[in-house]
Amino acid sequence: MRPNYTKIYEDLLRLEHPEKLEEPNIKRLLENLNSAEDILNLNEKIFTPSKESLKDNQKLKTYDRKTMLKLLQYQKQHGFSTNYMSKKYKISRTTLTKWRKTFGNDV
Protein backbone atom coordinates (compact mmCIF):
# COMPACT_ATOMS: atom_id res chain seq x y z
CA MET A 1 0.00 0.00 0.00
CA ARG A 2 1.42 3.36 -1.06
CA PRO A 3 1.22 6.31 1.35
CA ASN A 4 -0.96 9.26 0.32
CA TYR A 5 1.83 11.81 -0.05
CA THR A 6 -0.57 14.54 -1.15
CA LYS A 7 -2.48 14.28 2.13
CA ILE A 8 0.73 14.06 4.16
CA TYR A 9 2.18 17.21 2.60
CA GLU A 10 -1.11 19.11 2.79
CA ASP A 11 -1.34 18.38 6.51
CA LEU A 12 2.30 19.28 7.04
CA LEU A 13 1.91 22.58 5.20
CA ARG A 14 -1.33 23.40 6.98
CA LEU A 15 0.47 23.04 10.33
CA GLU A 16 3.92 24.44 9.54
CA HIS A 17 3.60 26.76 6.50
CA PRO A 18 -0.05 27.63 5.76
CA GLU A 19 1.00 30.51 3.49
CA LYS A 20 2.67 28.07 1.09
CA LEU A 21 -0.63 26.28 0.45
CA GLU A 22 -1.74 29.38 -1.46
CA GLU A 23 1.21 29.35 -3.88
CA PRO A 24 0.14 28.07 -7.34
CA ASN A 25 3.48 26.31 -7.86
CA ILE A 26 3.08 24.35 -4.64
CA LYS A 27 -0.56 23.51 -5.40
CA ARG A 28 0.41 22.13 -8.82
CA LEU A 29 3.20 20.03 -7.33
CA LEU A 30 0.86 18.70 -4.63
CA GLU A 31 -1.64 17.53 -7.25
CA ASN A 32 1.01 15.61 -9.20
CA LEU A 33 2.81 13.48 -6.63
CA ASN A 34 3.25 10.30 -8.69
CA SER A 35 6.92 9.40 -8.32
CA ALA A 36 9.85 9.76 -5.95
CA GLU A 37 11.15 12.54 -8.20
CA ASP A 38 7.91 14.51 -7.75
CA ILE A 39 8.13 14.16 -3.97
CA LEU A 40 11.77 15.28 -3.93
CA ASN A 41 10.93 18.31 -6.10
CA LEU A 42 8.09 19.32 -3.80
CA ASN A 43 10.23 18.86 -0.72
CA GLU A 44 12.95 21.03 -2.28
CA LYS A 45 10.44 23.83 -3.03
CA ILE A 46 8.96 23.80 0.46
CA PHE A 47 12.05 23.44 2.62
CA THR A 48 15.48 24.95 2.14
CA PRO A 49 17.89 22.17 3.07
CA SER A 50 21.17 22.78 4.87
CA LYS A 51 24.43 21.45 3.47
CA GLU A 52 24.69 18.91 6.30
CA SER A 53 21.20 17.56 5.71
CA LEU A 54 21.85 17.29 1.97
CA LYS A 55 24.94 15.22 2.62
CA ASP A 56 23.15 12.97 5.14
CA ASN A 57 20.02 12.60 3.00
CA GLN A 58 22.04 11.54 0.00
CA LYS A 59 23.09 8.38 1.81
CA LEU A 60 19.46 7.41 2.41
CA LYS A 61 17.97 8.37 -0.95
CA THR A 62 16.00 5.69 -2.79
CA TYR A 63 14.41 5.74 -6.22
CA ASP A 64 11.49 3.83 -7.64
CA ARG A 65 11.74 1.96 -10.94
CA LYS A 66 9.87 4.69 -12.86
CA THR A 67 12.30 7.39 -11.73
CA MET A 68 15.37 5.25 -12.44
CA LEU A 69 14.18 4.57 -15.98
CA LYS A 70 13.31 8.24 -16.49
CA LEU A 71 16.83 9.30 -15.48
CA LEU A 72 18.46 6.66 -17.70
CA GLN A 73 16.28 7.62 -20.67
CA TYR A 74 17.09 11.29 -20.12
CA GLN A 75 20.80 10.46 -20.09
CA LYS A 76 20.55 8.40 -23.27
CA GLN A 77 18.34 10.92 -25.10
CA HIS A 78 20.74 13.81 -24.47
CA GLY A 79 23.96 11.79 -24.68
CA PHE A 80 25.13 12.78 -21.21
CA SER A 81 28.02 10.94 -19.61
CA THR A 82 27.63 8.98 -16.39
CA ASN A 83 29.98 11.46 -14.73
CA TYR A 84 27.75 14.40 -15.73
CA MET A 85 24.58 12.67 -14.51
CA SER A 86 26.31 11.70 -11.29
CA LYS A 87 27.20 15.31 -10.51
CA LYS A 88 23.90 16.79 -11.66
CA TYR A 89 21.63 14.43 -9.70
CA LYS A 90 24.06 13.58 -6.89
CA ILE A 91 23.93 9.86 -7.63
CA SER A 92 27.09 7.77 -7.60
CA ARG A 93 28.50 6.63 -10.94
CA THR A 94 28.40 3.07 -9.61
CA THR A 95 24.67 3.34 -8.93
CA LEU A 96 23.96 4.69 -12.41
CA THR A 97 26.00 1.89 -13.97
CA LYS A 98 24.16 -0.70 -11.87
CA TRP A 99 20.82 0.73 -13.01
CA ARG A 100 21.94 0.58 -16.64
CA LYS A 101 22.88 -3.08 -16.26
CA THR A 102 19.62 -3.87 -14.49
CA PHE A 103 17.33 -1.99 -16.89
CA GLY A 104 19.44 -2.29 -20.05
CA ASN A 105 16.61 -3.58 -22.24
CA ASP A 106 14.00 -1.17 -20.86
CA VAL A 107 15.91 2.04 -21.59
Structural notes for this entry:
It is elongated and about 45 Å long. The longest helix has 14 residues, at 65-78. The mean pLDDT is 84. It starts with a helix and ends in a 5-residue tail after the last helix. 7% of the residues are buried. Helices cover 68% and strands 0% of the residues. By secondary structure, the protein is mainly alpha-helical.
User: Could you tell me the mean pLDDT?
Assistant: 84
Which stretches of 5+ consecutive residues score pLDDT under 50?
none
Distance between the termini: 27 Å
Order of helices and strands: HHHHHHH
Return Rg in Å.
Answer: 16 Å
Residues in helices, as a percent range = 55-70%
Strand fraction band?
Answer: under 5%
Number of helical regions? 7
Number of strands: 0
| Largest sheet composition | none
Helix vs. strand class:
mainly alpha
Global outline:
elongated
Q: Secondary-structure blueprint of this entry?
A:
Layout: H1 5-16, H2 24-31, H3 36-46, H4 51-60, H5 65-78, H6 82-89, H7 93-102
